[in-house]
Structure formats: structure tokens, C-alpha cells
Specification:
It is globular, with a radius of gyration of 19 Å. It is 34% helix and 23% strand. Helix 1 links the parallel strand 1 and strand 2. It has 9 helices and 14 strands. A 7-stranded mixed sheet has the order 3-4-2-1-5-6-7, with helices on both faces. It has a 7-stranded mixed sheet with strand order 9-8-11-10-12-13-14, with helices on both faces. The chain has 2 domains: 116 residues, NAD(P)-binding Rossmann-like Domain (Rossmann fold, 3-Layer(aba) Sandwich), CATH 3.40.50; 145 residues, Succinyl-CoA synthetase domains (Rossmann fold). Helix 5 crosses helix 9 and helix 6 packs parallel to helix 7. The protein is an alpha/beta fold.
């Protein structure tokens, strides 16, 4: 009952020995995630104790994969070192790299994304500046709280971490197959469309919640994709109905330019594709509740 991250996923943490990396490694382990080690070249060969579970530290992603069979890396490294960390994951051809780091320069994100494309996109990148991916009851890679909701049959894709948590909480009586926080930066690895396609193809997902926000045209492109390819019911929400033009709101990519990128324009495009769009998160949850009932 999941896309991309399952109970069988073996997770490593780049930056596991740092303060954020160690804190969230402990949380992921508590959630039942199969974390098998960490990466820090300066501390290679040591181990870290997480409440009685000793995890090895490796010199590189490639070494960690060879020794543990890891197929997911969660990246908790400072912005200045994120590009190098992601490129290392791409070179090792790890299937999934979840980039949590906030404040990554857009030029760096563009660079590692182009690098990935040049090498055949063998690594799926989620993020940067995202809460990660959670398949409740199976695995949790990132910072999404593990106790919001049980497993279920709703899929969720969102630009916003906070709104991810809110919708998971409001629909906790139905539960989720997978929740994917794709991040709100101008350049991200996994898009709404990627997640929509995966949920459409997933036999254990019955309906999809899509959360977007002002700025860019990702939601309009997602609307076109939904119209042409998605047969499952989709309920949407766009953050930023009251945002003033020309002012960045929260995420680096959330900025309205002229009449482009407004919440109303995105709502219109989605509704034209048959998506029910709520004006608030709670209304969005109610619309999904109606679909699931």
C-alpha cells in the first residue's frame, strides 16, 4: 500500500551524525523504518547508538549500498554541501534520494537535477526543502510525524510540509497509502505529475489529495496531466488565495508575477480538469471525505 517507499525499503542517512540527522534518524527508527546506516566520510568505520540499536557509519553512499543493500538515502546536510551529497547519491545510483535540506541555492538544485538527467535518471530525487515521504505503518523517510495517521487508501502529494501534516490529520480516519512532500523550491526533483502518475498506477490508492501553492505553473501542468491520464478522483487545495502579488510567501517558489501563478488561476485550471478544489484545508478534507464515503 505505497509508492516508492515500502516496508522493505532499506534507508541510509547522509548526515546521520549531525544534530538534525541523528534526531530524525531516531524518529525514523521509532516509526519502524528500516534504517541500516549512515554516511559521513570523517566518521567512517564508527557506529552510532540509537537507543540500543548500533548503526554503522560509512565513507560513501556507494559503500553503504554495497554493505547494507540500501535503496533509499535521506539527506540531512547543510545547504553548502547538499549539491555534493546529492551528486554522490546519483553516482552510486541509489534508487531514491530524499533531500530534506532547506535553503539549497537554486543553481545547485538545477545542477544536480541536470546531472541526474544526464546519467539517465536512475535516482528519483524528492526535494530539496521538503518533509520527505511517508508510507504510514510501513516506512518513513524524512521528517513527517509518524503518528498522524494510519495506513489507508488515500495518496497525498504536497508542496507544503505543514499542509501535508494537516490533511493527513484531518483524514486520519481513512488513512494514507503514501504522503509525498515534494517541496516548494523553484527547482525540485519530483513533481506533482510524477506522484499523480504513481498513485494512478498504484492498485492500493483509491483517491488523491494534491496540495499546491501560488507561483509557477506546476499546478496548471498537473491539471492537464490529470485531465488526460488520471481516472481516480483528485481533490485539491491551493495555498495563497490572499497572497499579494510580487511578494514571496513562505517558499522560494511561491511568488505571483502579474496575473500568472495566482491561486484563482490554478483553481480554475484544476476544476476544468474535474478536480474538486477546497478554499481551505478543512474544506478540502471535507471534499475528500465525500469522495471516500
Amino acid at each position: 500500500m505505497a509508492i516508492w517507499l515500502t516496508k522493505d525499503s532499506k534507508v541510509i542517512v547522509q548526515g546521520m551524525t549531525g544534530s538534525e540527522g541523528s534526531k530524525h534518524t531516531r524518529r525514523m527508527l521509532a516509526a519502524g523504518t528500516n534504517v541500516v546506516g549512515g554516511v559521513n566520510p570523517r566518521k567512517a568505520g564508527t557506529t552510532v547508538d540509537f537507543d540500543g540499536k548500533e548503526l554503522p557509519v560509512f565513507a560513501s553512499v556507494g559503500e553503504a549500498m554495497k554493505e547494507t543493500g540500501a535503496d533509499v538515502s535521506v539527506i540531512f546536510v547543510p545547504p553548502a554541501f547538499t549539491k555534493a551529497a546529492v551528486i554522490e547519491a546519483i553516482d552510486a545510483e541509489i534508487p531514491l534520494a530524499v533531500v530534506i535540506t532547506e535553503g539549497v541555492p537554486v543553481q545547485d538544485s538545477a545542477h544536480f537535477w541536470a546531472y541526474n538527467v544526464d546519467r539517465g535518471q536512475k535516482t528519483r530525487i524528492i526535494g530539496p526543502n521538503c518533509p520527505g515521504i511517508a508510507s504510514p505503518g510501513a516506512s518513513n523517510a524524512g521528517i513527517i510525524p509518524a503518528d498522524i495517521t494510519p495506513g489507508g487508501r488515500i495518496g497525498l502529494v504536497s508542496k507544503s510540509g505543514t499542509l501535508t501534516y494537516q490533511l493527513m490529520y484531518e483524514l486520519r480516519d481513512f488513512g494514507f497509502s503514501t504522503a509525498v512532500g515534494i517541496g516548494g523550491d523553484p527547482v525540485i526533483g519530483t513533481t506533482h505529475i510524477d506522484a499523480l502518475k504513481a498513485f494512478q498506477d498504484d492498485p492500493d490508492t483509491d483517491a488523491i489529495v494534491m496540495i499546491g501553492e501560488i507561483g509557477g505553473d506546476a499546478e496548471e501542468r498537473a491539471a492537464e496531466f490529470i485531465k488526460a491520464n488520471v481516472t481516480k478522483p483528485v481533490v485539491g487545495y491551493i495555498a495563497g488565495f490572499t497572497a499579494p502579488p510580487g511578494k514571496t510567501m513562505g517558499h522560494a517558489g511561491a511568488i505571483i508575477s502579474g496575473s500568472a501563478g495566482t491561486a484563482d488561476a490554478k483553481k480554475e485550471a484544476l476544476e476544468a480538469a474535474g478536480v474538486k478544489v477546497g478554499k481551505t484545508p478543512s474544506e478540502t478534507a471535507r471534499l475528500m471525505r465525500e469522495v471516500m464515503s
